[in-house]
Prior knowledge:
It is a single chain. By secondary structure, the protein is of the alpha+beta class. It has one domain: CATH 1.10.630.10. It contains 18 helices and eight strands. The protein has a four-stranded mixed β-sheet with strand order 1-2-6-3. The longest helix is centred in the middle third of the chain and has 30 residues. The radius of gyration is 23 Å and the shape is globular. The mean pLDDT is about 90. Bound molecules: protoporphyrin IX containing FE. Protoporphyrin IX containing FE (HEM) binds next to helix 4, helix 13 and helix 17. Protoporphyrin IX containing FE binds next to helix 4, helix 13 and helix 17. It comes from Hydnomerulius pinastri MD-312. Pathway: Secondary metabolite biosynthesis.
Amino acid sequence: RHHAPKKNKRAFPPGPKPLPFLGNVLDIDSERPWLTYSAWRKQYGPIVYCQLLGQDVIIINSAKVARQLLDRRSSIYSSRPASCIGKLFGIEFNTAFLPYGPEWRIHRRMFHQALRVEAAESYQALYLSKAVLLLKNFLDTPDDFEKHLQLYIASITMAVTYGYELTSLGAPLVKPVSELVRLLNDGLPPERNAMLTVFPFLAYFPAWVPGAAFARDAARCRELSLKSLNDPFEYVRKNMAAGSATRSMVSDLLSQLSDEQNYAQEEKAIKECAASAYVGEPQSAATLSTFLMAMTLYPDAQQRAQAEIDSLLAENILPDCSHRASLPYMEAVLRETLRWNSVAPLALPHTTSSDDIFEGYFIPKGAMVMPNIWYIHNDDSEYNRPDVFNPERHFNADGALTDDPLSSRVAFGFGRRHCPGKWVADASLWVAMVSILALFRVEKRRDGNGRAIEVEPRFTAGVVRRPLPFSCSIVCRSASRAHAVRLVDD
Ligand code: HEM
C-alpha cells in the first residue's frame, strides 16, 4: 500500500517522477538495476525514493547513510520484504527470508553462537585441509577450476555446518543441496532473477509465475529443500548418538541445548539455521572466481602478492593462518576482490517496520530499503579509477593497511541483517587465495599461435553476480610446494 506523505510536512526523499501504477519500473535497467540506481545518485543525492508498482522503495547510495539508517536505527530497518517465492520454493524457513521477529532472533542467536569470529577461527585446520584438496585438484585438472572452487566452498560449508566430509559434489548427502543452489541461482533465468532483485514483491502475483518450467522447478525445489533440511541433520543426530560426530555448527548447538521447555522449537531452529548456510555458497564461490579473473587481468598485483608470500615463506612451505598478519598485500588483494566486482551488488533488501523521518524526509513503514553496495564500492569520489583492480588503494600513505575492519565491511551488508557467515567466508576465502598464489601463476591462456586470449570482465545478472565463464591458465610455479601438497594425506 502506498503511503502518501502528509501535505507539506512529510516529503519523500528526492527521486524520479513515478508514472501512475507502474511507478519507475520502466526507468530501471532490469539486468543491472544497480547501474540505474547509481546514476540516480548523481541526480538526486545519496538517498533516493522511487516507486515500483505501488511499492515504496528507498535506495541508499552512501555507506554513511546506510550506517545511519540500517546500523543505528536497526530496530526499524531490519525486516525483509514478504515474498511468496520463499513458500513457492520451500525455502521460507531460511534465515535470509524471515521477517524481523522472534523466530529470526533465535536464528541469529544460533548463528552468533556457532559462527562468530572465535568459532570461525576454530575451523582453521579445516579450511587448510580443504585448501590442500583444492590445490591437488588444480594440479590435476586446472581447466576445471570453477568446479574445484565450488567443491572447496561446498566442502567447507558441509563440514562447518554438519561435520560432513565432502569429497565430491555428487555425494548423496549434498546432491539435493547442490541441485537446490543451482536451481535457485541458475534455474531462474537471469532476467527473471534480475526482475526479482528489483521487484521481489512481484512474486506476490500469481500471474507473474510464468509457465510450466518455472512451476516444475519450484516443485522440485520444495522437494530438495525438505531433503536438505532433514537428511544432513539426521546424519549429525545419528553420529552424535553413536558418539562419532565431529565438531560442527549442528553438533555444537545440539549439545548445548538445555531449555527443556522449548526443546522442540530450538531443535527446529538449529535445523533451519544449518539449512540456511548454503545461501553463502554462491557468493563465496563467485568471489573466488572473481579473484582468479582479477589475477588473470592484473599480473602486477599477482606478482606483488607472490613476492610477499615468497619473502615470508621458504620454497617448500605452504602458507597457513598464522602467516596472515605478516601478509598485508595479500590482505589488500582479498579486500580489493570484494570491492572490485561486488558479488551481492544490492545486498538483500531490508524493509522498515515503522514510519521514520530522516533529515526531514519521510520513510514509510513497509518501504523496501536497498543499500547499493555496487555504488559504494565504485564511488569515484572515494576510489580513484574504481573499475581498476588495485590492491594498493587499501594502504595509507605511510604504507599501513587502511582501517577497514571486517565487522563493518559493506560487502557483507548492514545492521542486524549483516551476513552472519562473514567470518567463515573471510577466513576460507583468504586461505584459498593465499594457497593458490603460493603454488600457481594464473595467466591468460594462449591460442594455437601463442597469442594471449583476452579476458573481458563480464558478469552474470541477478541476485548473485559471478563472472561469466572465462578461460585462464593455472600454472604450477613451485615444484617444492607442489611436492609438499602431494605429501599431505587425503
Ligand atoms: C563472499 C561471501 C559472502 C558474501 C559477500 C555475503 C554477503 C551477504 C550479504 C550482503 C547479506 C545480506 C546482508 C543484509 O541484508 O544487509 C548476507 C546475508 C546472509 N548470509 Fe552471507 N555472504 C557470504 C558468505 C556467507 C556464508 C559463508 C554464510 C554461511 C555460513 C552466509 C550466510 C548468510 C545468511 C544466513 C544471511 C541472512 C542473514 C539475515 O537475513 O539475517 N553468508 N550475506
